[in-house]
Design brief:
The protein is an alpha+beta fold. The chain has one domain. Helix content is 29%, strand content 26%. A hairpin with a 3-residue loop joins strand 3 and strand 4.
Length: 239
Amino acid sequence: MAGQPMLPSRRAAIVAAVAVVVLIAGVFLVRLTRDDTTSSDRHDSPPAEVSPRPTVPAGATGPAGEAARVPVGFAADEPGAVAAAVAYATASQRWLYFTDAEIEAAIGEIATPVAAPRLAEDVVADIAMAREQLARSSGRIWWLVRPLAWRVDSFRDTQARVSVWTVTILSAAGVAAPQSEFLTVTLDLAWVDGDWRVDGVRDTPGPTPITGPHDQPWDAEPFDRALDGFTRMDGEPVS
């Protein structure tokens, strides 16, 4: 039946293994996890231009608006840093639907000026790979990146470190069997030009729950059919 789960075929299992590369590529700024230096230690790129920030209403944490289609404008206090970290840790939700130029503009808005050019180059390369593979899908693409919990690791007047527990879900008929990845994404934030901006990112796997005792693996086609008529919580269309 269309709404019932089906055990993946051998081919689907192989496709799922290949798709892990795509899944990881979409995690926000994942390549920076291979480099422990922060932007303040780098001098190989000129600072990027930044736009003025919208005013955060008194007592609010932000975001106060958008720039380059990403949330910006966070309060200068600890709750503002948390709100920024949660938004930035799941920014890859939108990357897949952006052009290369839009990705570069978006990262320019949420990263520190020195870090932005290098990070944009890495993310554009990763998303280009993801787009190429997912374009082969014969059906809709479900790509969801969601925050689950957060923790403040440290906070000072102009520096903050916040960890965000996230889940990424991917399903694409013919390319990726339905799969999920749980990560703890740790962001180093710096207060620069009137907003919290990403200065460093690293991630660690998990914690990862097992599936429920009554659940079974799904193949991509019945997974998509079971979600027919559903609207994503962020309102973005399903590809």
